[in-house]
Design brief:
seven-stranded mixed sheet, four-stranded mixed sheet, 384 residues, alpha/beta, Outer Surface Protein A, domain 3, Rossmann fold
């Protein structure tokens, strides 16, 4: 182990004895009282020294035996210590790649080190992302941006599914360029994903003619981000049947008529699904199924829908963040819930979606899981 005080957390002395790591209440920790000896040790926890060398240097400057281990134990318990060599074999392999690859993910690593307190946990999660496969359904302003962000965040294989050709209104800064107009969406989105990836390119899936894919990893997540946002606001039940049957988690996101939607994240058999959404809406509004059938039957073709660029970018960013949180092992706030924001005020609001007893997904009566909430004030820990 090569311990280091997490550099992502800003450090400030509250007074002569207490030091605070972190500026925001969700992750801030106050350490103290800190004597002169402990203060000198803090500067040695920088990831360049193993424990034997740290103990030796502590003896050289006259500190008693056990001082290093005692302080390190308290800082680790407070979630302030990372391991510069931790994370397991996959993390070691990631570190051994070209420096540019690791540098591209350095900010992501810093963020993960704040969120996950255990030493080496951040690098382990970055390495785990590289073995995951995510499918994005839709290559419009929302879907293409989500795919690019996931790829740039280290997800190993990001597939984008969509038809037709890129239209002028699909173009967005940092996503699909104007040069892609007229190109097949599938090809344009694939190039976007490859160029965004921190590694040279996501590995290709070998598909023999007329046969199933070879060596294709299972889907970790499907992000449903249709260009026509109605299919995100009112998810199509038959389209989700395969994901429910195979237990594939899926997240809805899109923009419909100047309203942005993120969620629900569906955990098949564990949280509300598209069928639950449809049944609950029909109970509240008996005319809803009739109107929905009319809207779905009226093909919009390649018509430009009301999809404000700023709102689409916000939806894509939130959806990608929720997807990454899930891939990293957490349950984001979109699990069994939908977040909406409408122009022009953009007041994000959340609607909890309860699993419906008449739905065949089997989620009714199941425990969805617990989400941790951040503390309102910095955590205090005695480390002196």
């Amino acid at each position: 182990m090569h311990p280091m005080v997490k550099p992502a957390l800003r450090r400030a002395w509250r007074n002569l004895q207490y030091v605070q790591f972190g500026s925001t209440p969700a992750h801030a920790v106050v350490v103290g009282p800190v004597d002169t000896a402990s203060g000198s040790l803090l500067s040695l926890f920088d990831g360049t020294r193993g424990l034997p060398r740290l103990r030796e240097e502590a003896r050289v400057i006259g500190l008693p035996d056990g001082q290093v281990d005692a302080l390190l134990g308290r800082l680790t318990e407070a979630g302030l210590i990372d391991d510069a060599t931790g994370g397991g074999p996959a993390a070691d392999a990631l570190r051994q790649r070209a420096g540019a690859t690791v540098d591209r993910l350095r900010s992501d690593h810093a963020s993960l080190s704040v969120v996950h307190p255990e030493p080496g946990g951040a690098m382990a999660r970055l390495a785990a992302r590289g073995a995951m496969r995510v499918q994005v359904r839709g290559a419009g302003r929302v879907g293409a941006a989500v795919a690019a962000v996931l790829s740039a965040s280290g997800v190993g294989l990001v597939e984008v599914l969509d038809g037709g050709r890129v239209q002028a209104w699909d173009v967005a800064p940092g996503v699909l360029p104007a040069e892609a107009i007229g190109e097949r969406r599938l090809a344009a989105a694939g190039r976007l994903v490859r160029e965004a990836a921190p590694v040279k390119a996501p590995r290709a899936v070998r598909r023999p003619p007329g046969g199933p894919p070879l060596d294709e990893p299972p889907l970790s997540l499907v992000v449903v981000a249709p260009r026509d946002g109605l299919a995100a606001y009112a998810p199509d039940v038959p389209a989700a049947e395969e994901w429910i049957a195979t237990g594939t988690p899926h997240l809805y996101a899109g923009v419909v008529e100047a309203t942005g939607v993120v969620g629900p994240l569906v955990l098949p058999g564990g949280s509300a699904c598209a069928g639950c959404v449809e049944l609950a809406r029909a109970e509240r509004d008996p005319a809803w199924p009739r109107m929905l059938a009319q809207w779905r039957s009226g093909s919009r073709g390649e018509e430009a829908g009301p999809c404000d660029l700023g709102l689409a970018t916000a939806v894509a960013g939130l959806a990608a963040a929720h997807a990454l949180a899930f891939l990293d092992g957490d349950l984001p706030a979109s699990t069994g819930a939908r977040w909406e924001a409408t122009l022009p005020l953009l007041d994000w609001r959340s609607e909890q979606i309860t699993a419906h007893g008449d739905c065949t997904c089997g989620a009714a009566g199941q425990t969805q899981g617990e989400r941790a909430s951040g503390a309102g004030t910095p955590q205090d820990t005695m480390a002196g």
